[in-house]
Design goal:
224 residues; alpha/beta; Rossmann fold; 5 helices; 6 strands
């Protein structure tokens, strides 16, 4: 099974295969979402550590290595690498969207200069790369990224990062609504559980984006 037939929801089980992708380097950018220290922080209890162990293993063994390789491939070919991170613009977090103030998991209060809000060193921006700071889930809604991409002539956005079912999904939907061509790189993303990760890919695939592996993306880009 390849990207043309994988991750199909109920709605698309009988749909024709999509056409081959054509991604002009000059019109394409890699977007890395929320790869920040907070996501790899040690959980407060042993029970939660056990629950989060699969996520941490996926991040260290799959997502971070693959994203770093993808970043290097884009940089080597002069294709833009863009980063988005979630952080408060003011220390008390009043600038956050409602979704970031709700009690529970999404209630993130991270000032922009705090250690937990910084991008992890392994996939950190190179000098001169664009970094946008958002106060909501979508990297498009929460920043001037739409304007920046338009000014740069970008039509194709390759999306990576965390969490697949939250900020990644919100960004993908926003990009699709603005008529960008969106590719989600499956092995450069993660959710809290694999079930959430794969279910969200099934939900967004073929309507808001196409879901590819990093190897499949390399073949589309002609890197083999």
């Amino acid at each position: 099974m390849n990207w043309k037939t994988a991750y199909r929801s109920f709605y698309y089980r009988g749909a024709p295969e999509p056409e081959d992708l054509k991604l002009s380097p000059a019109e394409t950018a890699l977007l890395c979402i929320d790869m920040q220290n907070y996501s790899l922080a040690v959980k407060p209890t042993a029970e939660q550590d056990a629950e989060w162990a699969p996520f941490n293993e996926r991040m260290h063994n799959i997502v971070i290595p693959n994203m770093r390789s993808l970043q290097n491939a884009f940089r080597h070919r002069g294709i833009d690498v863009i980063h988005a991170r979630i952080a408060c613009l003011i220390d008390d977090g009043r600038d956050r969207s409602l979704s970031q103030k709700m009690p529970g998991w999404n209630n993130l209060l991270m000032p922009g200069n705090s250690p937990e809000s910084q991008i992890v060193p392994a996939v950190a921006p190179n000098p001169g790369e664009i970094v946008v700071t958002k106060t909501t889930d979508s990297a498009l809604t929460g920043t001037n990224l739409r304007l920046v991409l338009g000014n740069m002539g970008i039509r194709n956005v390759i999306v990576t990062g965390i969490y697949t079912d939250q900020c990644v999904s919100s960004t993908v939907r926003s990009l699709a609504d603005e008529s960008f061509n969106v590719i989600v790189v499956e092995d450069c993303c993660a959710a809290g559980t694999d079930d959430l990760h794969y279910k969200e890919l099934e939900i967004i695939n073929m309507i808001y984006c196409h879901v590819l592996s990093s190897a499949e993306l390399g073949a589309v880009m002609g890197w083999d």
